[in-house]
Write a structure and sequence with these properties.
Radius of gyration: 39 Å
Oligomer: single chain
Distance between the termini: 101 Å
Number of helices: 25
GO molecular function: ATP binding; DNA-binding transcription factor activity; phosphorelay sensor kinase activity; sequence-specific DNA binding
Number of domains: 5
Largest sheet: 5 strands, mixed
EC number: 2.7.13.3
Protein name: histidine kinase
Domain Response regulatory: 452-567
Shape: elongated
Helix content: 55-70%
Enzyme class: transferase
Length: 697
């Protein structure tokens, strides 16, 4: 029930603020009512109302402070009783307007009990105070009422106020039942998370244990790096599971604080130092400062470590190489402030209010600024508040962000259950939590005969895995976001693209759409590799033009087979063109953009068939492509150079004219754009095995 009351107190706080402000404004305005009904007493009554308004203002100012907000129920009780006593004080001075004021006497009580939901003990005690105040007011009247009048008025007031008490009782029961239902669901969810976590931990243990043993035995650097890849990502998964479990425990109210005196300065310096190797790797400066050499603060060691580690990881995530991250501590009269500041991209105003929301990643949809789960900062906020502390953030886009955490000194803010005698030891492995920045360097060679694959993926370890798995059979290119991938695809014209969906700057769906609607890149097969494996996501990927869609985790062998199949389909298309360029593009099973491109190219060639000067440059101009782009496009689609394609088209059209037997060889040669008969005969014989004079055999 204590937890339910705390929940009720938090829920009633906004109602308390609203009703109090309403009472402060409206109650003095009733002096107009007093002026017309009781002109001789209205000044006195106004004083009563102003005193009550002052009580309400003081009540609001006190309870609006964060540490007193838990007394919102008491604030509502005082608000109600003060108004009832105020009106009761007017009764001894009334002469002919007793009944209108009696009606007004019941109105505030009923309004408050209907608007708010407070326990019956509060409403019933307010009811008793109200009735007692009324009876005493009647007793002190200069002209006492008759017994029948008093009985009638008490009965009227009691029944009227009883409606409010009964309404409050019903709302209280509904609230409690709803709370119990939600608490049961929270317990079920917490138990589910606990069971799932246990089921995850067992296989993770069976992964990490053998991997550690294999690492100790491995001597080959390549094999050691592969084992480290497994270990690093298993530890990240373990950390993610722990954070999810902490959030579930927090929601269920089962995450307990075990605070003990800790030197927050040395502890913060120690945690900060664990980031040095990563900072050196990225050329990021680490600056630590403190206004005091040591300062004891009651902290839960493990939870404070998670708070500071997550804040620092967030700072690294949004910092550019060569920038600076600062950790500073300062002491005020009753608080110690821990500030983590970076020089990164900053946070926009519209994102600021959501920065501590669970699973929020700074962008909506499939585009995210940086890789992450959206759990870290939400967990930080919960853990800080568990310490009865505060967290705030200040930022401007392009000028970095500053997170400020404030902890109370002393232990007056802690209950006995929240303290512990001894702290715990550190256990977090920072290197496993930090995502490796950057992109694997691409090595390409124009003389290489290997097919070229572009990987667009923002996870460094996934890039590393694909490089090692596919690098022996393919020439590999890498991009860390969709925009970079689009630029590389247009420049390098890979034979195939593997891309993730959720990436910075431009997501995989948009990248696929851009590639497939651009005639320069529409022919490139694209496979989406993504953790989002829902039917809707798959349909969206295929609708955007993806040739295949593979859900993570995927089988390496399956990926190789799917790549091989797409490459084989491309070679079959090229073989069709090798046999004849006069095919219907609509029958080739290629995309609409490529069909339109080939149809347009064939129509242009047909329109300029008899022009011997119509060559590669003019075709490129007609198709609005550069000569290099046109060459790469034809090479990818039909495995022919542009000049070979033009010559093949002219020769195949020549066979049609020769089959008519109505034209001489010379006429046919000039009609298909050859102004040199001997050269025409040479090309024709090379392609069909016989000179044009003997065709058809």
């Amino acid at each position: 029930m204590v937890n339910f009351l705390e929940s009720l107190r938090r829920k009633n706080y906004p109602s308390f603020v609203g009703v109090t402000i309403f009472a402060v404004i409206v109650n003095p305005l009733w002096a107009v009512f007093d002026y017309y009904l009781e002109p001789d007493n209205w000044v006195l009554f106004l004083k009563f109302r102003l005193v009550t308004a002052c009580i309400h203002i003081i009540n609001l100012l006190i309870i609006s402070k964060k540490k007193y907000r838990r007394y919102s129920l008491e604030g509502i009780w005082l608000l109600t009783v003060s108004i009832q006593v105020e009106i009761a004080l007017m009764f001894p001075f009334l002469e002919d307007n007793l009944y209108p004021y009696t009606l007004g006497f019941t109105l505030p009580f009923i309004i408050v009990t209907i608007i708010t939901s407070i326990p019956v003990a509060y409403t019933f005690s307010a009811f008793l105070v109200t009735v007692t105040a009324f009876v005493l007011a009647m007793y002190f009247r200069p002209d006492p009422l008759t017994t029948n009048e008093i009985v009638f008025l008490v009965f009227f007031i009691s029944t009227s106020l009883g409606v409010g008490v009964f309404s409050s009782f019903l709302r209280y029961r509904i609230e409690r039942k709803d709370y119990q239902t939600r608490r049961k669901l929270d317990e079920l969810k917490s138990n589910f998370f606990a069971n799932i976590t246990h089921e995850f931990r067992t296989p993770l243990t069976l992964i990490l244990g053998p991997v550690n043993s294999l690492l100790e035995q491995a001597r080959d650097p390549v094999i050691r790096e592969e084992y480290n890849l497994i270990k690093r990502n298993a530890l990240r998964l373990q950390n993610l599971i722990d954070q999810l479990l902490d959030l579930a425990r927090m929601e269920a109210g089962k995450l307990q604080l075990h605070a003990a005196p800790q030197d927050i300065v040395s502890l913060s310096r120690e945690i900060f130092a664990t980031f040095e190797s990563h900072a050196i790797h990225r050329n990021i400066g680490l600056v630590f400062s403190s206004s005091c050499s040591n300062q004891a603060v009651y902290l839960d060691f493990e939870k404070y470590e998670k708070i500071l580690t997550n804040l620092l990881i967030n700072a690294f995530k949004f910092s550019d190489d060569g920038s600076e991250i600062r950790l500073s501590l300062s002491k005020t009269d009753s608080h110690v402030e821990v500030i983590v500041a970076d020089e990164g991209i900053g946070i926009s105003e519209d994102q600021m209010e959501h920065i501590f929301d669970r699973f929020y990643q700074g962008q909506t949809g499939n585009t995210r600024s940086y890789e992450g789960s959206g759990i870290g900062l939400a967990l930080v906020k919960d853990l800080v508040e568990l310490h009865h502390g505060r967290i705030s953030v200040q930022s401007r886009p392009g000028h970095g962000a500053e997170f400020k955490v404030s902890f109370f000194t002393g232990r007056a803010h802690l209950s006995r259950d929240e303290t512990a005698r001894h702290g715990k030891t550190r256990h977090t492995i920072v290197d496993s939590l930090l995502t490796e920045p950057g992109v694997i360097e691409s090595y390409t060679s124009d003389s290489s005969d290997l097919p070229r694959i572009l990987v667009v993926e923002d996870n460094y370890d996934m890039q590393l895995y694909l490089q090692r798995f596919l690098g022996h059979d393919y020439e590999m290119l890498f991009a860390g976001d969709g925009a970079e991938g689009l630029a590389i695809a247009r420049e390098k014209m890979p034979d195939l693209i593997l891309c993730d969906v959720m990436m910075p700057v431009m997501d995989g769906f948009e990248l696929c759409h851009q590639l497939k609607t651009d005639v320069k890149t529409s022919h490139i097969p694209l496979i989406m590799l993504t953790a989002r494996g829902g039917v809707r996501d798959k349909l969206q990927g295929l609708e955007s033009g993806a040739d295949d869609y593979i859900k993570k985790p995927f089988s390496g062998k399956e990926l190789k087979v799917r790549i091989k199949n797409l490459m084989t389909q491309r070679r079959r298309l090229q073989k069709k063109f090798a046999s004849s360029v006069l095919v219907n593009p609509g029958e080739l099973g290629i995309g609409r953009v490529d069909q339109a491109f080939l149809s347009n190219a064939l129509h242009i060639l047909e329109d300029n068939l008899d022009d011997p000067e119509f060559r590669v440059v003019k075709l490129a101009e007609a198709l609005a492509l550069s000569r290099g782009q046109l060459h790469r496009k034809f090479k990818a689609l039909v495995n022919q150079s542009v000049s070979e394609f033009i010559r093949s088209y002219r020769l195949e059209r020549a066979t049609a004219f020769l089959n008519d037997k109505t034209h001489t060889v010379g006429e046919v040669a000039f009609r298909v754009g050859f102004n040199n008969l001997s050269y025409f005969s040479e090309c024709f014989k090379k392609k069909y095995g016989v000179p044009p004079s003997e065709y058809p055999k």
